């Protein structure tokens, strides 16, 4: 190997190591910040009965959230879409931000009991009506072929 290629190889290894170390420390800092926020959310949570009117993923500018909330969000976050749920709590209609994990399971036009912390829905419980189960998605060609091959080989149970 020539001297130039050895130097280039060493420089790329050093750069990759520096990026890896930087990402490690940034991840550690973000995890600590998330744990602190989760403690605050748990301290302020309360259960409410509400009617879910609509749910959408909207940009924070278009979400209908209070102006104070929009002003506090970082500028990079303003362009991203958030799961927004339009609810009726008592006589008041308001928009709330939903946890990404439970957004798909929230039923529309149903009355539910939800655990809310400020304007953030963390959990949904107590559906008054039966939960409508979505039909199973059809498997693709390769997934169904793979499942058939497993059944023939005896790896997977036959349905």
Explain what you see.
The model has no long low-confidence stretch (mean pLDDT 86). The chain is 38% helix and 27% strand. It has helices at residues 3-43, 67-72, 141-153; strands at 46-59, 81-89, 92-98, 111-117, 120-125. 9% of the residues are buried. It has two domains: 1-43; 46-125, OB fold (Dihydrolipoamide Acetyltransferase, E2P) (Beta Barrel). It is flat, with a radius of gyration of 24 Å. A five-stranded mixed barrel has the order 1-2-3-5-4. The N and C termini lie far apart (59 Å). It is α+β, with helices and mostly antiparallel strands.
Gyration radius (Cα, Å) is 24 Å
Binned strand content: 25-35%
> Which sheet architecture does the biggest sheet show?
5 strands, mixed, barrel
User: What oligomeric assembly is this protein in?
Assistant: single chain
CATH architecture of the largest domain: Beta Barrel
Uncertain residue ranges: none
**Helical segment count:** 3
Indicate the CATH class of the largest domain.
Mainly Beta
What letter string, H or E per element, gives the SSE order? HEHEEEEH
The coarse overall form would be flat
The number of strands is: 5
Largest sheet: spatial strand order: 1-2-3-5-4
What's the N-to-C terminus distance?
Answer: 59 Å
- The level of helicity is 25-40%
Overall pLDDT, averaged? 86
Structural class: alpha+beta
CATH topology of the largest domain: OB fold (Dihydrolipoamide Acetyltransferase, E2P)
Number of domain modules: 2
């Amino acid at each position: 190997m020539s001297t130039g290629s050895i130097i280039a190889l060493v420089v790329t290894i050093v750069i990759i190591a520096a990026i890896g170390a930087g990402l490690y420390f940034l991840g550690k800092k973000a995890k600590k910040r998330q744990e602190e926020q989760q403690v605050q959310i748990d301290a302020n949570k309360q259960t409410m009965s509400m009617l879910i009117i609509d749910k959408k993923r909207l940009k924070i500018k278009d979400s209908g959230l209070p102006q104070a909330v929009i002003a506090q969000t970082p500028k990079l976050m303003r362009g991203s879409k958030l799961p927004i749920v339009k609810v009726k709590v008592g006589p008041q209609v308001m928009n709330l931000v939903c946890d990404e994990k439970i957004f798909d399971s929230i039923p529309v036009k149903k009355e539910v009991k939800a655990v809310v912390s400020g304007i953030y829905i963390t959990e949904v419980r107590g559906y008054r009506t039966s939960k409508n189960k979505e039909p199973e998605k059809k498997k693709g060609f390769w997934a169904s072929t793979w499942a058939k091959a497993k059944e023939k080989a005896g790896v997977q149970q036959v349905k």
